[in-house]
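Technical note accompanying the year-one report. For the benefit of new consortium partners, we illustrate the data format agreed upon in the data management plan: each record pairs a sequence with a structure-token string. No post-processing was applied to the example shown here.
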Amino acid sequence: MPRVKLLLHCLLSSALLASPAMAQRRVAGRVTDQATGQPVPGAAIQVQGTQLGTSASDSGTFVLLTPDGPATLIVRRIGYQRREIVLPPGDARLDVSLRRDILQLETQVTTGAATSVAKRNAANDVATVSGEQFSRVSAPSLENVLAGRIAGAQVSANSGAPGGGNQIRLRGVTSVFGSADPLYVVDGVIVSNEVIQPGLNAITAAARTAMGSNASNQDNGVNRIADLNPNDIESLEVLKGASASAIYGSKAANGVIIIRTKQGTAGGEAGYPAVDFVQRLGTRGLSRKFGARHFTLDEARTYGATIGMSQAAVDSNYTACGGFCDFEQELFGEHPFNYETTLAVRGGAGQTSYYASGLNSWDGGIQQNTGYRKQSLRLNLTQLIRPKLTITVNNNFLRTLVSRGVSNNDNVNVTPYFVFATTPSWFDMRPTNGIYPKSPIAGSNIFQDRNFILTPEEVYRLISSVGAAYAAYAGDRQSLTFRLDAGVDRFNQQDNVVSPRFLFFEPNDGLPGTVTSLSANVLRANANFSAVHEFAPAGRPWNATTSLGIQREISSQRSTNIVARDVLVGQENVNRGATTEVFADREAARGLALFGQEELLAIGEKLLVTAGARAERSTVNGDINKFYFFPKASVAYRLPGLFGLFDEFKPRFAYGQSGNQPLYIQKYTPAQIGTYTGQIPSRARDRT
């Protein structure tokens, strides 16, 4: 800590030693799109080699103070190619046209906890997805949008059930025991992607362990990042390499996904806000079938005899099905009416800008009694308190209500495709006058299970963040900015399973009728304080950015699962069972991290050199007072128009370390109980 205080003191001292202001002139102009001639609002105009700069208004106009002598202006905007324009002495007017940037090379990508750089200069492997790509089509969750848009990323569905969510793998499997999911950061908040299993194991017996009927990882749980509204996303960055993800240390071995939501803008003409209303309507259907064997009547009679069915019973079923019962079509043949309604208002007034949105969507399942409802409210505010102080507040309230049915592994033949595989296609499982035939081999009935098993899950979630930026000093050659960012992610999840005692598989355990109640509460919170010093010395073709900071994190997770058996028909309360099992889990962790980084951009912004490190400690480690270091370093050099063969050629080198935090309570248990392919997992390292 003394070293950190000393470095912060040096930064403050250097700011006070800024070079004296030079004579300046006033330059006005307008930035437009080269193809359409339309204004380009928000374009950044900066005097090369200085900290002087401004932004274009909604009409594309700008006013900038520049040195009296010759100056080079850099004009850039995300989505456009940047331009460097020499402004002769005495000129007071500059109109600029920008060309579309198809490769998004001017997009700012994250290089540190409080810094960023244009993608064209970055030495790390960073992929970006724009908000336009998220809002172009309807998607149940943001992972669906990422499929096929991130090179090397594997996106796989948890299940085909409504609201099933997806799993994302950026760097393969990095741990035998821990999660392989990336770390998610939304508006500076490290959010939870925790999977709270719903407790289906109580009826499926998929995991027969010492934990008995408790929830297991075979319960078809959903990663909670699926809660987010994709329409609210402004941009998304994927840090895949360890050299990039090292800024998040021991939580970043699987990569990092940084999400920024939409913010307010200055009001349009006459100060009116921009209003977007989207109504989507549609339906869903079974995409493809596995298929089943078609029997002739003689084949059916022969097969029926092997499973103890009389010829009369075989003939009756064969006739009822017309020789073939299409179980898949019968069970998954629904065509639900789906809708998604979104309303967003974006604008500003005076020193305040805002973005507000609402979402209400319904995704009906292709199986009866399943569906997924998602509702979201968001309000983002940015307020200029003083000329040097800006406050940003982001709030997002979410509610999801889902019923996914039973569609994962089981050992009692309740999962439909398990029953399909063991039931001959000529056997009619459809109910007649409320009577459900029992499958001769599976010992259950898919339509009975569909109609009477209840699996509701409800989640309430709040993600809030606040950010404050104070421009302590801003001169021609250097600037010093302090930032404080803090946020919290909290959600409550309630799952219930109701399996009536008259279902065919229920008496198998001797206690027919099962009811469960699972309640979970998850909290993630973090606060970051950082200082960023930018320095562009006069007459030198380079500028340096120094950043230092401290981060504090807390997390907690609590869950209680109550399983009641031998429950009478019509009862859904867990206190109505003859036998009851109670399972509870409590986890809490605290973390502290220090980080620092130095970036040097030189030779006309062609060379970028970065070096940094993060030191962190956590209560999940064996030694809670020991700091673990995660260094990073990179260098990249751009060669525009190399040999006339390339528009841009950039050799780069990057090195970094990230890692996997130990699982909770692992420090009190044998952490390594075996090996995988003869190797023990270690911190991930990456060289590119």
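Partners are asked to follow this layout when depositing records. The two ends are 33 Å apart (CA to CA).
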